[in-house]
Amino acid sequence: MAEALDLHTVGDLLHHYPRRYAERGELTALSDLPLDEHVTVVAQVADARVHTFNGAKGRGQRLEVTITDGSGRIQLVFFGKGVHKPHKDLLPGTRAMFAGKVSLFNRKLQLAHPAYELLRGDADEAVDTWAGALIPIYPATTKLESWKIAKAVDAALPSAVEAVDPLPPALRDGRGLAELPDALQKIHRPRTKADIEDARQRLKWDEAFVLQVALARRRHADSQLPAVARKPAPDGLLTAFDAKLPFTLTDGQQRVSGEIFDDLATQHPMHRLLQGEVGSGKTMVALRAMLAVVDSGGQAAMLAPTEVLAQQHHRSVTEMMGELAEGGMLGGAEQGTKVVLLTGSMGAAARRQALLDLVTGEAGIVIGTHALIEDKVQFHDLGLVVVDEQHRFGVEQRDALRGKGKQPPHLLVMTATPIPRTVAMTVFGDLETSVLDQLPAGRSPIASHVVPAADKPHFLSRAWERVREEVEGGHQAYVVCARIGDDEDQKRKPSPEDEAEKRPPLAVLDVAAKLAAGPLAGLRVEVLHGRMHPDDKDDVMRRFAAGDVDVLVATTVIEVGVNVPNATAMVIMDADRFGVSQLHQLRGRVGRGAAAGLCLLVTEMPEATPARQRLAAVAATLDGFELSRIDLEQRREGDVLGQAQSGVRSSLRMLAVIDDEEVIAAAREEATAIVEADPELTAHPELRTALDALLDKEREEYLEKG
């Protein structure tokens, strides 16, 4: 159990809840089995046949068993010596539980060599586990089937009476929640569906509440830290900047700026998450916050995840500021400041100058990659850190940058991946949230379509014609691929998806060569990917921005922040290999000017697959918040404490961040009240125990660094 499911203690096992319950009289829906996942189904054998075939090693036997559950059918396959026992066991009409990995063969779903446990309805069945009306089906693996886990749970369940209850009795009684031992009994061995519901309500509260207490304690600790209040000077840099803006800020931008300025004016560090759709003007809001801090005598640093993006931010900030970005230079405005760029690939002389400008305070604003975090970088008085695209940044990196202030600087985190309210409450529970939901005027709609290349090859030819039409109309296009296609790629082991699909995703270098020689012959086609030399990358981007390149074939390096208003079309190859929010981000690169955008999602996946449903959802809506809900529902939440990267198992087993909005919001209120009254939780020893279990050392540090 430790190896296969990371379960080490009786408590771990008791909190390994059934994924669902099969009823004796009911068969699970075979019609919606997910591809490439390990599943357990209860079904009836419809027919079984042995086929003899001539293989490389002489004659072989293959047993094909079709099982049905009324909603659909799926084939089981057994080979070689493994056919005898199942052939004897699985007679037509037999009912059993089957466990295995769903794969695709000849475009049909199948289970190869599944494990199975016969369900005999007779009274003298040895294992009375199956006698209950509701059969619990546990998240399982190839090495450990659901029914083995069930037997282990039977052995451990009597000790549930010793479970320590983290919920304060007043809260539990006030909300009419079951006691913990009772809830554990009901979730594993329910007699009725009402039992399951009771148990779920209670166990959800445990997860939501303990997590919210952890976050409330962080907010409480942060509110005790000192920070320098930063207020803009009455007629300073910010006033001058606002005066030269050629447009008025949207209501949303003004509202969010107000929230940020209020935070900056306090003696405690701001911790704010600014989320907004691609192109909602987050950079403008962040820039005004940086100018306010410079006005008050401090410095602001903006961290970008890639060099391409840091250069782009630097370019757009200096363009927006004009002579205000040339403080101390000839022709610069008197209340101006210097805006410097700091990246890893800069020449030594430019780098030395940038470092000097930071330490003397000449430069009020610095924009850079994680080169900003190196020990050599010293600030005169760091007052604000802006982190762009938070999910690309490790906690350690933000922490190191925050450590460069004489006192903790204010922190503004920006993300273009819309995050539903409850997820923000949970994942970024230590940050206050601001949302920009209007798009600035002048943004064009983007039409999106799925191109099923395998079912309808002529759709793909039409896609390339559309790209030509856009270029002939004076516009430009992107073609996005999941791989680069150079020698480095060859060294990579293929992913399980590649194995299942029998081909690796299309690669930039191959696609670019084919397009230039074929459907896009005569157009100026260039490539862009992460392993190019930074100067070459910058050169391609500049030429694309200047309109000297018609079609840019790229990896997802263009996903974030690349801004070329004349690019109107994007074709995403193997779109099913990308996540929903990534597709949405990529699509946000077109339609940034006056002309309408077009996004074509090319896939070879068959119509009924979840991958195709996901693409259809992306094509159907431009609302990022709606898509982020779909994305989360499909991916499940992963570990909300962000430890997914380090392989610590998910702390959320029962709570669905999307569906349990009320529970999370209520838990947050209860948690805040308890922590305000008793920050050290002296009166709640059981809650402390539960917190320690949730926040093992690693997570505690993760939350600390935030």
Question: Key features?
Answer:
about 700 residues; alpha/beta; seven-stranded parallel beta sheet; six-stranded parallel beta sheet; 25 helices; about 40% helix; about 20% strand
Architecture overview:
The protein has 706 residues and is α/β, with parallel strands linked by helices. It is 38% helix and 19% strand. It is built from 25 helices and 21 strands. The chain has a 7-stranded parallel sheet, with helices on both faces. A 6-stranded parallel sheet has the order 16-21-20-17-19-18, with helices on both faces. The protein has a 5-stranded mixed beta barrel with strand order 2-3-4-6-5. Strand 18 (525-528), helix 19 (534-546) and strand 19 (551-554) form a beta-alpha-beta unit. Helix 6 (180-188) packs across helix 7, helix 7 packs across helix 24 and helix 8 runs antiparallel to helix 10 (282-295). The protein is globular.
